Inverse folding.
């Protein structure tokens, strides 16, 4: 039975991934920061505990990272993000090499490519990086460090840059939107004509599992992948799909985009951009190089979210 270490096993992606890998008969080594009830979970700190957890693993999936600035406004946010996202990533990669791990799968972000796409353009894996905030910069730097480690010692690196990921127990801006739709409030989003690529949690988990299987995905070695559902939607279309999946009666009406932008930025500037701007990706590399296609549609994932939410 192949062993796979998942770092960040109790997170939004980690829980779903551990469950899926276990169903594929992998022996999953779930590493967490705090005990959370996951079967066989590890809390590791010193080198010895890491080497024990990594022993016999063929692959590592690194999902841990800092995504938001702290409330107390650090004097140097970039340095704080580097400590969390670059230093810890490279340290784990070197430990993986020492333990004889073959492949290191790193969860990055589409924000490395940029915050939005111009009309008619889709982000591609080989685009020049254009990270615009400390989080994205630190992820890009971590990617570069990993690729350098690969050149030096031969560790296979797979980098995944997902767009917004949604699924059961989703957090962040998607959860915020769900909350207002489910409460039945009328939403002034009918005039938004943007277009965004998104990624269902189960589709992301499927892609990671393919990359974990080294024999099934030899071409993934030292590659960067952009992955999505292959189904792009505007914000207003997304609201309609959520309403349908959840059986909600909330109304949607048009309000001038400039008014929405002003109001949204007063509340949360980044949320305003995600609500209004377009961000499209070209996912053809995963299809052509690895033969991967998303197994679930957006409607299917949203329906599963509705069933999950109704059960809790």
């Amino acid at each position: 039975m192949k062993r796979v270490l998942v770092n960040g096993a109790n997170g939004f992606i980690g829980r779903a991934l551990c469950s899926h890998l276990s169903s594929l008969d992998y022996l999953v080594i779930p590493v967490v920061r705090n005990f959370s009830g996951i079967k066989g979970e590890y809390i590791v700190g010193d080198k010895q505990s890491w080497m024990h957890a990594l022993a016999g693993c063929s692959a590592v999936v690194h999902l841990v990272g800092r995504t938001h600035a702290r409330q107390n406004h650090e004097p140097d946010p970039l340095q704080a993000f580097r400590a969390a996202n670059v230093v810890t990533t490279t340290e784990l990669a070197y430990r993986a090499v020492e333990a004889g791990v073959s492949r290191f799968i790193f969860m990055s972000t589409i924000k490395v490519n940029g915050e939005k796409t111009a009309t008619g353009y889709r982000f591609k894996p080989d685009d020049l990086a254009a990270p615009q905030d400390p989080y994205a910069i630190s992820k890009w730097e971590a990617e570069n460090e990993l690729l350098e480690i690969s050149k030096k010692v031969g560790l296979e690196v797979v980098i995944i840059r997902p767009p917004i990921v949604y699924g059961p127990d989703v957090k962040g801006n998607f959860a915020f939107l769900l909350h207002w739709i489910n409460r039945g409030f009328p939403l002034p989003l009918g005039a938004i004509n943007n277009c965004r690529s998104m990624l269902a949690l189960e589709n992301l988990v499927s892609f990671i599992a393919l990359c974990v299987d080294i024999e099934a995905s030899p071409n993934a070695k030292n590659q960067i992948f952009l992955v999505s559902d292959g189904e792009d939607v505007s914000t207003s279309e997304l609201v309609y799909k959520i309403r349908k999946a959840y059986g909600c009666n909330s109304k949607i009406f048009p309000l001038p985009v400039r008014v929405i932008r002003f109001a949204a930025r007063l509340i949360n500037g980044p949320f305003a951009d995600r609500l209004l701007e377009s961000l499209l990706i070209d996912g053809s590399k995963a299809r052509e190089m690895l033969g991967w296609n998303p197994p679930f549609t957006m409607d299917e994932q949203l329906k599963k979210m509705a069933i999950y939410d109704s059960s809790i």
In short: Residues 183 and 250 are 8 Å apart (CA to CA).
